Amino acid sequence: QVQLIESGGGLVQAGGSLRLSCAASGRSLSRSAMGWFRQAPAKEREFVAAITWITRTYYGDSVKGRFTISRDNAKNTVTLQMNSLNPEDTAVYYCAAQRGSYSSGSVIRQNDYSYWGQGAQVTVSS
């Protein structure tokens, strides 16, 4: 059973930075794509960023140039560095991982992922 646990959320002022981490347990995810999604109050969950097993990265339009996703296969973790945060980034951020290995398919849809974390709250004050 794969478990994903997010950490690093919190409260930050606009213009500040936060770093989210997601630690996986249960099996190695070094050959699986991993991603981050977020859900703001009264809004649908949206794609934030993803990284494939060959470390190709993808970003949602609203975070391009501000957020960076990376992975450490030795530690079975994925990290989201968030810079230049604004109040519109306020949301619960979810880590996700694909079940399959060596995938070259889509990584930007919720249905692409089988494993999900519980979520980490990020609040950006103005």
Question: Which features would summarize this protein structure in a list?
Answer:
126 residues, mainly beta, four-stranded antiparallel beta sheet, 11 strands
What do you see in this structure?
The structure is a single chain. This protein has 126 residues and is mostly beta strands. 0% of the residues lie in helices and 47% in strands. It contains no helices and 11 strands. Strands 2, 4, 5, 6, 9, 10 and 11 form a 7-stranded mixed β-sheet that branches. A 4-stranded antiparallel β-sheet has the order 1-3-8-7, with no helix packed on it. Strand 7 and strand 8 form a beta hairpin. It is globular and about 40 Å long. The termini are far apart.
Beta fraction of the residues?
Answer: over 45%
Q: Percentage of helical residues?
A: under 10%
Q: State the secondary-structure class.
A: mainly beta
What summary fits the major beta sheet?
7 strands, mixed
